[in-house]
Write a structure and sequence with these properties.
With 383 residues, the protein is an alpha+beta fold. It is 25% helix and 36% strand. The longest helix has 25 residues, at 48-72.
Amino acid sequence: MTREEYNALYEKYLSGKCSIEEREAIENYQDSIDLENYHWIKDQMGNQEVVKETIHAELLASIARQKRRQLIKIRTWYAVAAAIILILSSGLYFNSLRKETIIIAKTESPRFKNDVLPGDNRAILTLDDGSQINLDDAKNGILASENNTDIRKTGSGSLEYSAGDKLVEAVKYNTLSTPMGGQYQLALPDGSRVWLNSGSSIRFPTAFIGKERVIELKGEAYFDIKENRKMPFIVRTNNSMDIRVLGTQFNVMAYDDEKSINTTLLEGSVQILKESGTAFLKPGQAAILNKGTGKIKVAAADIDEAVAWKNGYFIFANENIESIMRKVSRWYNVEVVYQGNLSNKDFVGTISRDKNISEILKMLELTGAIQFRIEGRRITVMP
């Protein structure tokens, strides 16, 4: 039996749908599994039951990694099963796993009395004359026309600009804004596509004319730019930084409450322009602009983590709780307050953005290192 066959059978085993023969095959094969960290865990814990529970978690993670490869076809270093276990990189995961698993197994009611639903497709379109269109309420079809360009809602969470054949002399600008708890997709007049994360906005011309295609971004967006060597595409962020491309795919995170502006390149090439310096990116690299010093650092990127939001996930890779909760607060539109000392705790894990906020908080609490209280749209974080 291959590992892939075993994973599929083991998932069937967990759902209680195995036959007697399949169950015997599972149990016999499980006894022979030699996970790389089995002996290390056993030496550290000296507890056979904890070792088995850890192996169980590893198997769930292995099953989920296979599924995620099929769904999003990108690297899956942090994929885990539907019942995802977030772990502390310090090793506290192994110390608290047995205790916390037992507590959850005995809890039939939800951990939190209150809950908050995840974000969805919501945005406001501001036209050149200042009038606004609430895209939540708008029906599919043409919403307006500006500068010989039709503005059309093509579906839930999708807006498209279709330029006509007439020459445009005067430039008009529109702004697409997502609230906290919102996201939206935009097809620009040149055919380039933009995915806008929550709490973000993009200001762009209704028709591209001249020598450059310039848009302005606040917040976070993923870009798939249509190539035009005669007219480079420029993303202008706050803090006076330009990202210059011809045709490429990249992610820009430029929230005001973050200490850096991060540009992560997936395909093509990108030039970062700042008064303090210039940087060039290759696929798989990220440019990190420190807002405090103005310096740009180029480093190997974690592509999965950078575009997780676009693919419908949260991915936390050795991330502190303050950084995690900034992402959570934007997507769930909640206020976050802190009580006690929560420093020196880095978390690793993956969970769907389609889950209610309680699911994420419960996964974090499984580590035994942190607790939460939900009061309306106010989340209190405690050690």
